[in-house]
Design a protein that fits this description.
Elements (H helix, E strand, L loop, with lengths): L4 H15 L11 H18 L4 E5 H20 L3 H6 L8 H14 L6 H25 L19 H19 L6 H21 L2 H18 L3 H18 L3 H5 L6 H16 L10 H4 L6 H6 L13 H9 L1 H21 L5 H17 L9 H14 L5 E5 L3 H31 L3 H14 L4 H14 L2 H17 L4 H18 L2 H17 L4 H13 L3 H13 L5 H7 L5
Antiparallel strand pairs: 1-2
Length: about 575
Amino acid sequence: MSVRPPALALGALIIGSAIAIDPSGLAPFGPSKWLVVSTLGFVGAALSLRRGSTRCQRQSWRAWVGLLGLLTASALVNGDAKVALLGHPDRHFGVLTWVLLFALFCAGQQVVDQLTMLTRAGVVAGAWIGGYSLWELLFGPPVSVATTTRRLLGPFGSAAFLGAACCLLAPVALGVAFDRSEDRWWRRAAAATGGLLAIALVGSGTRGAWLAAGVAVVAVSVARKPNRRSVMWCGVGIVVAVAAIAPRLGDVTSRSEGGSSRLDEWGVAVRVIGRHPLLGVGPEGYRIAIAQGIDDNYERAYRRDTVLPDRAHDSLLDVALAGGLGAALLYLGLITFVGRRAWALLRAQRPAVVGIGVAVIAYGVQQLLLFPLAELDPVWWVLCGVVVGATSAAGAIERRRSVVPLAAATASIAMLVAGVLDVAADRLARTALRAGDHNVAINAAARAVNLRPDDLRYRLVAAEVHLDQGTLNDIDAAVAQARRATEWSNNDPFSNEELATAMSQRAAATGDSADVTAALDQWRHLVDRDPHRASWQLQLGRAAALAGDMTLARQAWTTADDLGEPGAAALLAALGTSP
């Protein structure tokens, strides 16, 4: 059977989501992957939906429309519309990405006759992930990542992402390996890929992925009742994977935080949802609203000094935060519907088809302990579409030629242009932060901002580079860059913190009362929004001391010390106050 262009595009998406890396970038696993995933995703959707008519399963289509409606409404009313609609540059999960997932879900239903192309693409992607992870295990990461963990990170720079990718692609590879209708060489390659992904899965140390893999094994055992030979080979693979990781098993299983940390994260999310049950806080809005769920105990246990939580680590809670309880119910209905169809597919005759069903189930289970991923969810929703298309005999909505393919094609061009500029700007940002020459650093930062003036990260990089210079002109430039970032996203915590830091530096340099007051007001604004952030209380105290308000300084430093901020005790001692 000939391979059609839609299947080629979707196969390229599956492979590209794994192999796209830019070692020259500040975030080597970020902009490059999003460039490939977003561009190829919309290309695949445009090609799949361009035929004279397309068929989409009726109930799931309506659920998707309702979900997108709630997410869009939430994005427009929650005060951070631009980021909510287009996505945050670190996460890329605005309304635009949800639209892409819907389009790929529909696209997957159109390529049910092209499963061989898709499963082989999964084998290629899995081979790259497994090979990269094995190299990392034996020789260290091919691309350096600033992290203290010794868990395997794979070509995603994240152990959790690696575990999720293994859940998605290992079942596909094993399905091909056991499929006697497949070419012999593809079966051998798939078997080797399955073994490599098993090593990567164990080495990732991701408990949610391990749980999902266990659920997948149980599901296959119940639905298929595999023969002894299949069980034996799978058992051998597991033993080999554990043995390969054995020298580092202690590093893989160790955690700086216990299992209760996940429960605490969920508790914070539930409190925020309780305040916004109808429409949530908008896509990408949790990074701002999380302060509403934080208390003193959480701050003491998980000091938010360099990392601000922005996900609830549960897909249903994340959707509820993004669009409200109604959106969460629709999403739950969607994944339940798809899961039931995937379960039905486990009884299919062809193992490669069974592998797709298992992949859909496993990835969905691990999402309950993680969150939607812009790098991998597009691939998952393509496979979800395949599952629904393969198990649907009736109840479909048929659409004639419409503006949808044209809109998807236009979006692909826009994502290509924006993505290429983003990759170039990311490389310039790396140069700006690592250049020894001040002029080179400032020029590189300015060029990065000019390429993507809408990206918060590059304005913050420019502000940081200018602050490092320390001159009054540079401090003013830093204030201007941080202020422009807050204009794009008014309540973005990092942008507002950078603005407060720059204003404090200006106040210290000039000693002008207006500058001192402005800096103090900015820190008060931050602390008013998040009174449990220990580092912000510390900085509020410093700004108050500069303004001569020692009562406020003592109060802020006392709060900071109570929240566990290490530097607060020394400042209180300098005031003659016992902490």
